[in-house]
């Protein structure tokens, strides 16, 4: 499967960056399963392969980047603690990494963060400070804490160590199919700040796999940036996908994505809610709305070239029971068709 192009460098990083990250965090994160469901294949008119990062530690792929980034810090740096800013999943991942290394984690979260994610961060020992509703507001608070403590900031998406760590999810995906001498024709990846898709681009270097993004309507920073040829800031609109609400795609993430991403898709809340329920009722797998974004795109069955094997990253599963109940109530008239 690997070609001579596999180690081509993009923005100072390559597939080797991801391979090295996988070696560093082996045993510190879960090697999550790739799931198949005939009923979903029928809807999508393709073979869907689902990378279940909802089953990762802390319930999301973010565990990979956080653990890798913290493991790369020197002991002196770690002794001063770590800081991050996040709407939830990265916050949990950093708190877990801090607990593993026995250090303090200060985390700036939005005032409207889901209670289920706030509770999880606190359970993991993270010290929360609430700061506004946007990523820039949270980052400003993280910098303030850093000025007081000298602790290292673990970036949620725009950092080589974070990107390489997130790329290990796709690397595992590629390796899983390679065991059967197969390769994904297409891979759909949910996008917030862009760490996961940048890592996917690196991990698939040298392959024929086409990468597509999935973003909520009104939060499509990558799609707008790709169209403009440069990073574009957006004012995130309302969406149930709270983990996919960036104001801007990461600088390094965009430099990588613009070289490898074949197309960008947006999904609305109805598509997110229905995809979540289809997955729950047909595959018996529960994800959060952000984790259903890539599946929502794949279920349309209209990716260019009608690819036969389509990979879908189920990026996270941290969802409140109340939201599941709300979605079931809202789409109850659709449920007979979904079973």
Q: Can you offer a commentary on this structure?
A:
The protein has a 6-stranded mixed β-sheet, sandwiched between helices. The protein has a 4-stranded parallel β-sheet with strand order 5-4-3-6, sandwiched between helices. Helix 1 (15-25) packs across helix 9 (195-203). The chain has 2 domains: 15-60 and 160-338, Rossmann fold, CATH 3.40.50.1100; 62-153, Rossmann fold. The protein contains 15 helices and 10 strands. By secondary structure, the chain is an alpha/beta fold. The longest helix is centred in the middle third of the chain and has 19 residues, at 160-178.
- Provide the residue-averaged pLDDT: 93
Following the backbone from N to C, one meets helices and strands in this order, namely HEHEHHEHEHEHEHEHEHHEHHEHH
Tally of helical segments:
15
What is the oligomer described by this structure?
A: single chain
Distance between the termini: 37 Å
User: What is the CATH domain class of the largest domain?
Assistant: Alpha Beta
- Kindly estimate the percentage of residues that lie in beta strands according to DSSP: 5-15%
| Structural category | alpha/beta
Counted beta strands: 10
- Low-confidence stretches are 1-6
Q: Which geometry do the CA atoms define?
A: globular
> If strands are numbered along the chain, what order do they take across the biggest sheet?
1-2-10-7-8-9
Measured as a percent range, the helix fraction is 40-55%
What would you say the CATH architecture of the largest domain is?
Answer: 3-Layer(aba) Sandwich
Structural domains: how many: 2
Largest sheet: 6 strands, mixed
Radius of gyration: 19 Å
CATH topology group of the largest domain:
Rossmann fold
